[in-house]
Design goal:
The complex is a heterodimer of chains A (about 425) and B (about 850).
Chain A lengths: L6 H15 L7 E2 L12 E10 L4 E9 L14 E5 L1 H5 L11 E10 L2 E11 L29 E5 L10 E3 L10 E9 H4 L8 E7 L12 E7 L14 E5 L19 E2 L1 E6 L39 E7 L4 H4 L12 E3 L2 E11 L7 E2 L6 E8 L5 E4 L5 H4 L14 E3 L1
Parallel strand pairs in A: 2-9
Antiparallel strand pairs in A: 2-5, 3-4, 3-6, 6-7, 6-8, 7-9, 10-11, 11-17, 12-13, 12-16, 14-15, 14-19, 15-17, 17-18, 19-20, 19-21
Chain B lengths: L1 H16 L8 H17 L3 H14 L3 H13 L3 H12 L6 H21 L20 H20 L37 E2 L7 E2 L6 E6 H7 L4 H5 L5 E7 L2 E6 L10 E5 L2 E2 L1 E2 L4 E2 L11 E8 L3 H4 L6 E7 L9 E7 L3 E12 L2 E13 L2 E2 L8 E3 L6 E17 L2 E16 L8 E16 L2 E16 L1 E3 L8 E18 L3 E17 L6 E17 L2 E16 L2 E17 L2 E12 L3 H5 L1 E5 L6 E6 L7 E14 L4 E13 L2 E3 L11 E2 L4 E11 L3 E13 L5 E14 L8 H5 L3 E10 L4 E10 L2 E8 L7 E8 L2 E13 L3 E8 L17 E8 L2
Helix pairs in contact in B: 2-3, 3-4, 4-5, 5-6
Classes of the chains: A mainly beta (about 425), B alpha+beta (about 850).
């Protein structure tokens, strides 16, 4: 006896069979989650390090926004960095003094579209070769007092392989606006041409004119005396013998630049006296995320004309080298400018109780009064090396981070 | 033509809705018929009563129903039918088979004598089956005798018993063999009574359980169409189920859910599936298929007093079918959208005293969504198959050899080769795990003494599914072995009332090799527990439990003890209604990850930098102090039961990652990785004390034949003594309101319908992410997550009764949503299933 299925049962069976047949075979769709990184399209920069050096150490490569170059060209801070360990870079030659060249791949990840410059240095461990005095590899990006190259380190940059001129690298975008990777970039390090000649310009400061380190609006200017500060022991090794003083010659025409057209050549080192954040510590005012770029939200100080520009300000005090004693040293016997750096034993810095908004460095705007707070003194050397006081060596800070405190490094100018 | 089709559809619907002899929740419906039948029989309305019992048996076979049918026929003087029913009963191999066979023999003798003498039978002279000759344990015998005494008492005091108010005293349900922890929840001495084993580590009526308890039966599982265990748990009042991927879910009870949910102990037949080294349950790696599960018991509330560490917010005990209790062969094939394919074979059998169950299965499914596309210029996919959310092939074998009624040996083992997803903590994101899981379990039962041993193994590779190109990769090798032995003793005695005593001792060895932990790590744990259930005076019972766990690090890095007391009072003033009040403490031990980790997490976008995450061997265990009021009730006549619970959980010493601290300058460089360490985040005990208060209600209803309704609601509020609401992760991450509603409708003939909806209110998740402007800085980001509803539906059709079943399942039929800010976007899937039971 045959049994006929009711039509609705056939229908249901058909649905089931069809479902089996049409079981989806498409790949899952791409749906970024709330994880911020998934919602950003980036690319990468990768290539090779080429090192010619008898010195050995890890290679550190920094990426900068091309519009915010590092000292001495600017005051930019690195966006990111990567490290190629010495073992990988020098391989079997690590224990020798063979000059190379040595090559190793490097990569900078998650780079957004834009224009960049790459800089780097070999964090040389000169103690390895028995030199005295010597530096161990002492770079540490997390502290201002350890985050720059020292004497003997070997500088490097992404350069045109044929001309050796530093390059501006551009991470472009495709038709959909997504960044494209930049590959085969060469970062060259040459001991012969880019070995750092001196340590960082570590200094101690004292007020020699104007009384104490307290500035008052409308008060007289202060004159600070800076002398090299040796720092030894612990993670920081700085032995500056003198400050390197030179004319600024950005266009390399052999003639001192005179940006402010005052009839006198501009000088290295440069001095910046910048307001610190009101919170304890070393954060700079209106740069609480420590990226070297003014925060989107911050304090907008009134300008001298009574207006506000609606943006957080970069507050600096009017400060400059006192050049009286420097120009003679920068003039040769024939009365011509001496264009090579000259070591000097001390520097005098004049600081006026005048605050400026240096958001636009080319056109600083005078602020009304003197914003209350603490101010740091930053010295920028022609080599690009800098030193700032106060810093992490201030005893109150140093003990908490494993550094040896140095009393002079707690110096700060104050505007009550 | 369109009208004709519409009429066809209406007709189909009407046919389905008006089908006769339909079934809803089988246990409730069967119980309703059973109660009704026994009541009628008590009133000497034998034919009607027996018909009701037969109907109950047809809905859900239970040997004791056959026994009662036989007794009813016997009392009615219908010897032939009584003999037939007794013989059917004996075929179920009851423990009292010998005595019943004696009764059969006597009945047959009487029948022959009666026929020969043409005289009426003298029922009173017949030897009645003695009380159950042997039962699994003394506890059950005690329970049985108590019920019998109660029934006799009622019969004596209420000779004109109304319908459905009492079981006639004449009819003594027999007990079944094998009422051990792995036995069916419906196989208690009282037919269709919901029974649980997890709450007290012995079989008992769910009414007598000292905790709020939810049972998910095999029938619930089948009718739900669920394809994963976590999906089933949405129906549990107070359960937080958070699916981040199709193979990655986190389940908590009464709040405190998170990536790597670590406060609920998950067991399979008493063997832990909670991975102690990591502190989570890898749901998709459990080597048990849904079709092998007899029931799932969920203890909502602290369970450390019996189960020790990690049974902090609850215990989920997955109880598999007793070997030999299922079909000789069953094939199941499923296919669906999302490249979902599954197939399984299940077989039960027995040879003499040896019973076994074996299964093999394969399953796979694509992710609901992918976080990254292939071939990006910045991200490399490390996942061996970036589309696959879960894939696995597994096999299990379970065998029991019974020497005597209360002496048996059980051996089981399984292996699972799988790929799945895990969403770890902190800065880590979506992980793949390509691994092998295996277990072996041996149980020996000698009367009141039980020895339980097991070994759990996991090995394989686990690492981020995607990484920035050029970034340092993390190690992926992982291996874990866990050995556990437990000795249990149970005894009933009288001392100022009846006592049910359970004591046990346990030892555990854990060995974990994992790149994240440094060298091979090993820990030895020990524990002892005791529980006494004291029937002080009816209707009051007291349950006191205490467990002490020895952990190698609990005393500031040296061996220490964790104490877990629990006291419960049960008040059962009338049959079917139990009121309980309980106070307990529980704890979660620090995991290997929390104790020993030394992991350098790459800072995304800064290839030269890493963030150091370290363990802490001086952690205190997370602690819970809980108070609970509960009311569990049932109305067999209405086919309804319910459970209401009010609770307060006070949680302290939560373990979490600290904020990043800068490292001393001399420790900021890791030569092995060539990375500078931005800082260190370590596992610490939080200072905050969190208080969760809530109310839960669950209802199961079979109001009319064919219709089954399940509904639950849970409301909770979590507060902190220190943190503001905006900064309090546990406060804002716990959904305040959860609702569940499910309806099943099935015809006895061939069709089944089911739909359920689980609603979860909105939450805000506080996550740690690298700052966009400065990836070396970690920010706490609030990620709001909207309310969502999970809707599942199933249509089943028995194409060939008891042989071929087909079903169409719609999963996640609600709007697309995520259940965690970093989770997949969950979208609907449709599956078709073919089940053949030759």
């Amino acid at each position: 006896m045959s049994r006929t299925l009711p039509s609705w049962k056939q229908s249901l069976g058909g649905v089931l069979a069809a479902s089996l047949l049409v079981a989806g075979c498409e790949s899952p769709t791409v749906v970024p989650t709330a994880d911020g990184r998934q919602n950003i399209h980036t690319a990468r920069i990768e290539g090779s390090l080429v090192v010619q050096s008898r010195s050995r150490g890890n290679a550190v490569v920094f990426i900068y926004d091309a519009d915010r170059p590092p000292p001495p060209q600017g005051t930019g801070r690195p966006i990111a960095f990567t490290v190629v360990p010495a073992e990988q870079l020098f391989g079997p030659a690590l224990g020798t003094d063979a000059p190379g060249p040595f090559t190793a791949p490097f990569s900078l990840s998650l780079v957004a579209a834009g224009r960049y410059t790459l800089r780097g240095f070999i964090d040389v461990d000169s103690c390895r070769s028995g030199a005295t005095p010597c530096h161990f590899s002492d770079f540490n990006p997390w502290y201002g007092v350890t985050s720059e190259p020292n004497q003997g380190d070997v500088g490097g940059a992404a350069v045109d392989p044929t001309t050796g001129i530093p390059l501006t690298l551009e991470v472009g975008v495709d038709q959909e606006g997504h960044p494209l990777p930049l590959t085969n970039v060469t970062v060259s390090f040459s001991q012969a041409s880019a070995q750092v000649p001196v340590d960082r310009p570590a200094f101690q400061a004292s007020v020699i004119v104007g009384g104490d380190a307290v500035l008052t609006a409308g008060g007289p200017p202060k004159v600070l005396r800076l002398v090299p500060q040796n720092i030894e022991g612990g993670a920081v090794e700085q032995r500056p013998k003198a400050f390197l003083v030179s004319y600024v010659d950005a266009n390399r025409d052999g003639v001192p630049d005179d940006a402010n057209r005052d009839g006198f050549g501009d000088l290295w080192p440069r001095v910046v006296v910048r307001k610190l954040a009101d919170s304890p510590g070393l954060l700079e005012d209106n740069d609480l995320d420590r990226n070297g770029i003014l925060d989107a939200n911050g304090t907008d100080y009134p300008h001298a004309d009574g207006t506000r520009d609606g943006q957080p300000d970069l507050v600096v005090l009017a400060a400059a080298l006192v050049p009286d004693a420097l120009y003679p040293a920068l003039t040769d016997e024939a009365g011509n400018p001496r264009m090579t750096p000259v070591p000097v034993a001390e520097l005098h810095i004049g600081v006026q109780a005048v605050a400026l908004d240096a958001r636009d460095p080319a056109a600083p705007a005078r602020l009304e009064g003197l914003p209350k707070g603490r101010y740091s003194v930053v010295l920028i050397q022609s080599t690009g090396q800098t030193w700032r006081v106060p810093n992490e060596l201030a005893p109150a800070i140093a003990t908490g981070i494993g550094l040896t405190g140095v009393e002079s490094q707690a110096f700060v100018l104050e505007a009550p | 033509m369109r009208h004709y089709k519409a009429l066809q559809r209406v007709g189909l619907l009407a046919l389905c809705l008006c089908a006769t002899q339909v079934l809803a929740d089988a246990r409730l419906e069967a119980r309703r018929h059973f109660r009704s039948g026994m009541s009628l029989i008590g009133k000497k309305e034998y034919d009607e009563g027996i018909a009701e019992l037969e109907q109950a048996y047809a809905i859900k076979p239970h040997p004791n129903v056959l026994y009662n049918i036989a007794r009813a026929y016997q009392d009615a003087g219908r010897t032939a039918e009584a003999l037939d029913a007794y013989k059917r009963y004996v075929t179920s191999s009851p423990a009292d088979a010998a005595s019943v066979e004696a009764t059969i023999a006597a009945l047959e003798e009487k029948q022959r004598a009666s026929q020969a003498a043409a005289q009426p039978e003298d029922n009173s002279a017949l030897p009645m089956p003695p009380p159950p000759a042997s039962i699994q344990s003394q506890q059950q015998l005690g329970a049985l005798l108590e019920r019998l005494e109660k029934a006799i008492e009622r019969a004596e005091t209420m000779p004109t018993t109304g319908p459905g108010t009492a079981t006639p005293s004449t009819y003594v349900p027999s007990a079944l063999p094998g009422l051990a922890e792995a036995a069916s929840g419906d196989d208690g001495a009282v037919p269709y009574e919901e029974r649980v084993v997890t709450a007290s580590r012995r079989a008992q009526s769910s009414l007598e359980a000292p905790n709020a308890t939810t049972v998910i039966t095999s029938e619930d599982i089948r009718l739900s169409g669920a394809t994963s265990l976590p999906e089933l748990l949405r129906r549990v009042p107070g359960a937080d189920v958070m699916s981040l991927g199709i193979g990655s879910a986190n389940v908590s009870l009464r709040g405190f859910n998170q990536r790597i949910a670590n406060k609920v102990l998950v067991l399979v037949d008493g063997r832990t599936e909670y991975q102690d080294f990591l502190g989570l349950t890898l749901w998709s790696t459990i080597p048990i298929g849904l079709d092998e599960i007899e029931r799932i018991e969920v203890i909502r509330g602290p369970g450390s007093a019996l189960y020790g560490a990690n049974a902090m917010l609850g215990v989920i005990n997955i109880i598999t079918q007793l070997p030999g209790s299922g079909p000789r062969a069953r094939f199941n094939v499923t296919a669906g959208t999302g490249n979902s394919v599954a197939g399984s074979f299940l077989s039960h059998g027995n040879t003499g005293a040896l019973r076994y169950r074996t299964s093999v299965a394969y399953s796979q499914a694509d992710k609901w969504s992918r976080d990254y596309a292939s071939n990006r210029p910045d991200i490399v996919l490390r996942d061996p198959d970036p589309d696959i959310g879960m894939r696995g092939a597994r096999a299990t074998l379970s065998a029991v050899y019974t020497f005597a009624d209360d002496k048996q040996v059980g051996l089981s083992g399984g292996v699972h080769r799988y790929t799945t997803e895990i969403y770890p903590l902190g800065l880590l994101r979506n992980y793949f795990m390509d691994g092998l899981g295996a277990y072996a379990k041996g149980d020996v039962e000698l009367g009141p003494l039980k020895l339980k041993t097991f070994w759990n193994h996991i090995s394989g590779s686990a690492g981020p599914q995607y990484e920035p190109i050029g970034q340092r990769s993390l190690g992926t090798d992982i291996s874990s072995n866990l050995f556990n032995a437990e000795l249990l003793f149970a005894r009933a005695f009288y001392l100022g009332g009846e006592h049910q005593l359970n004591v046990g001792v346990e030892g555990r060895l854990k060995r974990v090799g994992w790149d994240y932990l440094g060298p091979l790590r090993e820990e030895i744990h020990a524990a002892a527990f005791v529980q006494d259930e004291w029937r002080l005076a009816e209707p009051l019972r007291l349950v006191a439990s205490y467990r002490v766990d020895r952990h190698p690090l609990l005393d500031a890095g040296t061996p220490g003890l964790a104490h877990s007391p629990r006291i419960s009072a049960l008040f059962i003033p009338i049959e079917g209604h139990a009121f309980r009040i309980s106070a307990a403490s529980a704890f979660r031990e620090p995991t290997f990850l929390e104790s020993y980790t030394r992991l350098l997490v790459p800072v995304q976008g800064v290839n030269g930098a890493s963030a150091l995450t370290t363990g802490n061997t001086a952690l205190r265990p997370e602690r819970l102090t809980a108070f609970e009021l509960g009311w569990r009730g049932e109305s067999a006549e209405l086919g309804m039961d319910w459970d209401v619970a009010l609770y307060q959980n006070r949680v302290k010493d939560l373990i979490g990652l600290s904020a990043f601290e800068r490292l001393p300058a001399g420790e900021s460089y890791d030569a092995a990785s060539g990375n500078y360490l931005i800082g260190r985040s370590r596992f610490v005990n939080e200072d905050s004390i969190y208080t969760a208060r809530g109310v839960e209600a669950g209802l199961t209803l079979a109001p009319v034949d064919g219709l089954g309704i399940k509904a639950s609601a849970a409301f909770q509020n979590v507060t902190s003594d220190l943190e503001e609401k905006e900064a309090c992760g546990p406060c804002s991450q716990a959904p305040q309101l959860k609702l569940y509603g499910g309806v099943t409708y099935r015809t006895k003939a061939d069709l089944e319908f089911g739909v359920d909806v689980a609603y979860t209110s909105s939450t805000t998740w506080i996550e740690r992410e690298p700052a966009a402007s400065d990836p070396t800085r970690i920010e706490l980001l609030s990620n709001p997550l909207g309310a969502y509803a999970v809707i599942n539906a199933r249509v089943g059709y028995a194409a060939v009764k008891n042989t071929v079943d087909v079903a169409l399942v719609g999963s996640q039929l609600g709007s697309a949503h995520s259940q965690h800010p970093f989770g997949n976007r969950i979208e609907r899937r449709v599956y078709a299933t073919l089940t053949v039971t030759p």
